[in-house]
Design a protein that fits this description.
7-stranded mixed beta sheet, 241 residues, Rossmann fold, Small_GTP-bd, alpha/beta, lipoprotein, Small_GTPase
């Protein structure tokens, strides 16, 4: 493995679906109530594994269609995608459909790239407009070959699992680094209503989705040595706005 190799995860979605909040919870375990529109933010994390450095970039994109050239560039340079909508906004899922179609048109190897669809704001269940069965039906009938689950950035529910899973699908060894953190955070979901049922349903849902992604997802087309966990997986090395 080349030292300093970079991998880019791009998170797409309409405005106000919680893309920045999802990233903030993952990197800093923090949720901001105040909404601030994003044009483009790049979050970098460097891992030192077995004497080598691996850089993972998380690109937070604009929630509007005002920057088509920027969106095309983000699609062309990504190694993996998180497509985000809000369960209380059916129009936001239409945006996800558009973005997925653009990925399919622009990337000839789209079916080899890790893609996960995220329904955010599960804490707004009573205001739901997008039902999970409808999302699963679109994924199946249109052969999206992607994972799917619902999360809550506000409650930090299934956020870490989301990133762990997509890094695993990308065959990145840094996914192993998240396992001990994930175990420590399990207790944080104890106060979430319906937690046990939703966690079980989401886990089973993701397992089923993975069957559709059984093709090679490797972003590294070469043999790797075994890796040891990084010393400080929680460190956020840089944030570029």
């Amino acid at each position: 493995m080349a030292d300093g190799e970079r991998y880019r995860l791009v998170i797409f979605g309409a405005g106000k679906v919680g893309k920045s909040s999802i990233i903030s919870q993952f990197l800093s375990n923090r949720f901001e109530e105040k909404y601030k529109p994003t044009v483009e933010d790049l979050h970098c994390r460097e891992y030192h594994i077995n004497g080598h450095s691996i850089n993972v970039d998380i690109l937070d994109t604009a929630g509007t269609m005002q920057f088509p050239a920027m969106r095309r560039l983000s699609i062309s340079t990504a190694h993996a995608f998180l497509l985000t909508y809000s369960i209380d906004d059916d129009n936001s899922f239409e945006v996800v459909k558009q973005i997925h179609e653009q990925i399919r048109e622009q990337r000839t190897n789209w079916d080899e790239l890790p893609i996960v669809v995220i329904g955010n704001k599960l804490d707004l269940e009573t205001q739901r407009q997008v039902h999970p069965d409808d999302v699963r039906n679109v994924i199946a009938t249109e052969d999206w070959k992607c994972g799917f689950l619902e999360v809550s950035a506000k409650e930090n529910f299934l956020i870490l699992e989301t990133f762990q899973k997509i890094l695993e699908l990308a065959k990145l060894p840094v996914a192993r680094e998240l396992s001990p953190i994930l175990k420590r955070r399990m207790s944080e979901y104890g106060s979430y209503k319906g937690k046990n049922r939703r966690r079980h349903d989401s886990a089973e849902e993701f397992k089923e989705s993975e069957k559709d992604m059984s093709r090679s997802r490797s972003l590294i087309r070469r043999t790797r040595p075994k890796f040891k966990p990084a010393k400080d997986p929680t460190k956020n090395d840089c944030v570029i706005s």
